[in-house]
Write a sequence for this structure.
């Protein structure tokens, strides 16, 4: 087992995964949604610590009307996945 951890790029993450596999699974699922919904948009989606909470945080910047409109459109599209995102929270 130790040699498996040593081979990993991030051994600490490997230990965390062994210690709490359910939390690791939630993190991976959340990352898949975040990647699918907002990759390349400049929109940052954050979950509460340890996925214990009832809300997410969204952050973005814009410097033009067009950038704002694009972010709003992307957020509207993300709303279609709201139920799946909220199912991640504990």
């Amino acid at each position: 087992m130790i040699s498996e951890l040593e081979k990993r790029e991030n051994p600490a993450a490997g230990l965390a995964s062994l210690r709490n596999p359910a939390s690791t699974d939630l993190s991976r699922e959340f990352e898949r949604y975040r990647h699918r919904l907002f990759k390349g948009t400049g929109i940052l989606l954050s979950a509460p610590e340890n996925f214990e909470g009832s809300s997410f945080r969204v952050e973005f910047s814009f410097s033009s009307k067009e950038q704002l409109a694009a972010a709003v459109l992307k957020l509207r599209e993300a709303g279609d996945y709201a139920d799946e995102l909220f199912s991640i929270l504990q």
User: Anything to note?
Assistant: The CA atoms of residues 51 and 86 lie 10 Å apart.
